[in-house]
Amino acid sequence: MQAAVILAAGSSSRMGFPKQLAEVKDKPLLQSIIDKININFDNSSVVLGSESEIISEKINFKNSNILINENWSEGITSSIRTALFSYQNQKEIDDIIFFLGDQPEVEAEVIEALKKDDHESNKVLVPQYR
């Protein structure tokens, strides 16, 4: 089984408020990607860190688990580590696909291609734009 992880723990320091809650097309950024992921994955998690309480109050996580990265200030690697630790004992999970909480416009075709890729067990896929 595959799992999806949305990385959304950053502080958005340049914006002055949680970027995850920025409205785009009448919906918070984070809500948009959660909605997309929940359509495509039975098992998903969202890694929060900075302002996690405020974000948790305003977002409908649907069937996604909320993971709190206490070390969010260390950067994105600490969020990846938080997710990997969370899934390490779930033997039914074969693959984890990571998504960024501030990039909700990932196309359904990209998600499907990642899910269907017949890859070797230790291969890392990184989709690129253009």
Structural write-up:
The chain is built from 4 helices and 6 strands; from the N terminus they run E-E-E-H-E-H-E-H-E-H. By secondary structure, it is an alpha/beta fold. A hairpin with a 2-residue loop joins strand 2 (23-24) and strand 3. The radius of gyration is 14 Å and the shape is globular.
Instruction: Quote the average pLDDT.
Output: 87
Name the helicity range. Answer: 25-40%
Structural class: alpha/beta
DSSP summary, beta strand count: 6
Q: Stretches where pLDDT falls below 50 for ≥5 residues?
A: none
- Distance between the first and last residues' Cα: 29 Å
- Radius of gyration, in angstroms, nearest whole number: 14 Å
Number of helix segments? 4
